[in-house]
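Justification of resources, computational component.

The compute hours requested in this renewal are based largely on the per-chain cost of generating structure records like the one below. Each record pairs the submitted sequence with a full structure-token output. That output is archived, and it is also reused by downstream analysis tasks.
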Amino acid sequence: MKPQSYLNHGLLLTACAGFIDATGFIELGGFYTSFMSGNTTQLGTGNAQSTALLLPFALIVMFFLGSVVGSLLALRNRRWGPVYVLSFVIGTIAVTLGLMLAGVPASRSMLVLAAGAGAQNATLPFTGGARLGTTFVSGTLFGAGQDLAGAIGGTAPRWRWLQHLQVWAALLLGAFVGATVYSWLGIAALGLPALAYLALLILFARKSPVAD
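The structure output for this chain reads:
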């Protein structure tokens, strides 16, 4: 079982990812900045239409590159890894907002957000149980079912499966809030998760949240 404070950090990260993905989904007309399974399906069903192929492919490439950058930053130092990664993620939000305000189309400016989403997954190291701070939850839902089966069979902690579901719920809540705030503020809504990331960055810099 994850310590509650450590779990809360991961839930906030995941909620921010849901917020940003909802914003990107609306701006991109049905494509995602962090849900690469969806973009891969879109790519496979693009029917050779250039616009339907190029955007999901570019998003997938940027997510992959971001995951490489985030992992390299996290590997530099276990103590400061989360700070390095979140600095990069905040930077991608700032760049995206700057490009959007400069009139660059969302299909280009939001590619940077995909890199940030890929990097975010390296923020918290995986130490068993629920995978925290991620931008996707397909594996999380499977983990919940697997742990529930283990709990029934006596091979897993009785309530650990609920932690997986909390991660799923965090992404759902973040997406709902993101869509709502976007309807009020437009692209400026991205400032809200950026502030949340900054708060976590400061917290991580003061005291490492990495569980033993």
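The longest helix spans residues 50-76. The CA atoms of residues 138 and 210 lie 24 Å apart.
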